[in-house]
Structures are given as C-alpha cells and as structure tokens.
Amino acid sequence: MAEKYFKTGDIAKFHGVSSDTVRYYDKENLVTPSVVKDNRYRYYSLNDALKFSNVTWLRELGVPLKAIKNWLDYKDLTDVSGFNETYLETLLLERELLDKKIYFLQELNRRLASFQTKPNMWEVVKDNYIFTCKGFNFTADDKGFNINESNLYDSQEDVFWNKTSMIVYQNNLRDFHHPKKGEVYCSNIISSIDQDIKKISFPAALRYNFVGNPFSNMRKMQEILKEAKQHATTHQLCLEEYCYSLFYLSQIKEKSPVYYVHIYCPVHYTGE
After folding, report:
1. Which residues face 251 on adjacent strands?
2. Strands (E), the chain
3. Going by DSSP bridges, is the β-strand pair 6-7/183-188 parallel, antiparallel, or unpaired?
4. Residue 197 CA: distances (Å) to CA of 91, 136, 138, 161
5. d(CA 141, CA 213)
6. What's the CATH architecture for 6-73?
7. Fold: same for 6-73 and 101-269
8. CATH of domain 101-269
9. Residues 163-212: tens digit of each pLDDT
10. For the chain, what are the domain ranges?
C-alpha cells in the first residue's frame, strides 16, 4: 500500500498551529517533510506527523527549541524517560516559584489593606511577622545609608526573596540614642530556605499604619514612638526593646514623597 502524506495545511490544522509555524520548524530542521515537490509543495509522512506532535507538546510544556532538537535524537525509551524526569524536576521548581509569587502578592495585598481602612492609626495586632537578613544590613545616619561591607550577604541562595525584599528600620524604644538605633535591614513578608534569613514574630504588637513622609520632620518618628508608649500604658501593655518600620511603597504626591509604612512595636501584657 502506498504511503499517505499530509499537506502543510493539514499538519497545521491537526496540531492547532499556523502554517508559518510548520514552515518555521522545517527551517529550523526540527521537522522536515519527507517529500518536497518541484513546485515546493511539502508533504509529511505519518512519521513526520508523529514527530511534529512530539515537538508540539514539548513546546507546549515550555521546552526550548535547542533542548527539543536533542530530545528528537533519543536512542530508546530510557532516553525519553530520563529527559522527562529531568524536565519534570524543572517544572516542579517552577511551580514552587509560582506558588511563592502568588503567596507574595496575596500577603502584600492583605497588608496594604490596612492603609486604606485605618491610615495613620494604631492597631493592636496578633501573630504578625516579618523576615530579615541581618547579613545584609545598612547603618543610617545624617549622611545617608552605609552598607556593612564586612557582613555583605550573598543573596544568590534565594534570588526571589532578595529581589522582592523591602527595607525595614530597627529602632530602640527604650533608648532613642541607642547605638542600634537606625539600623536598616533587607526584609520581606515571605519566608526563605536561606539559613541567614530569620523570622521576627510579633505574637502581639502595636502597629501604626503610617501614610506620609517621616523624613519631612525628623521629630515625627519620635512623636509616633511616644504615642506607642502612651497607647501601651492605656491598654496595660509593656513595650519590647525594639520597634520595626517596614517600608512597602512610595509615591510622589504634590511633589512630595508619600510612604506606606507599618511601624511594629512588639508588646506583651502587663504581668507576663
């Protein structure tokens, strides 16, 4: 029985691609037709069609063209299974990263909601947290930020965490002139497998949802921290040693920067 052939258009329709894609795969030597007539019409055998199917689903899985070319040269099913297992690991890592991205956006939106519902107000919050990397910190003074070169953090272990990180200020509540006042850390709202990144938990805290420019008046932060002490006394709370100011966003309004900052003052109840 004579072998049957598929036309270029048939191959395209069967696989849900354009005729240009069929011709492109031919040009790239991924799937070439078995027969090319003098009038340049191309005809694909059943073997060609199956090969094209392989390329199509590999592309649908996101496999690069170069890797597909290598895959098409498989010797036996062991090669195929081995490639599939390796690429499956790649997809699982991609899914893990996608889950991180989804969680990051969900968590960010959850936190940002407080700036809309209770801007520039104090709240008593429970089970809040931030993550910091103290191996990547700065010192803030009147001249600006100075990176601590001796503890410079190699951020390549968790690139996503580093690239989505924020800035957090640490201040000493009991002594505003304490040497630790003004330390600035690389921070985030998501966890990390990196051992240098630590979770700072706030089982209970006073949180101020600051919207404005804390740098326009340097006394502003001192006033807010004084409010924290008064608020703690009113609610029979004891302030912990440090407070943390986590900067999420900034924008320019009327030629002046506006920052969205959560100021966390960890507390415990009197008598604990």
Report:
1. 258
2. 6-7, 35-36, 42-44, 122-141, 144-147, 166-172, 183-188, 197-212, 237-239, 242-253, 256-269
3. unpaired
4. 26, 10, 16, 9
5. 17
6. Orthogonal Bundle (1.10)
7. no
8. 3.20.80
9. 999 999 888 766 656 555 667 888 999 999 888 899 999 999 999 999 99
10. 6-73, 101-269
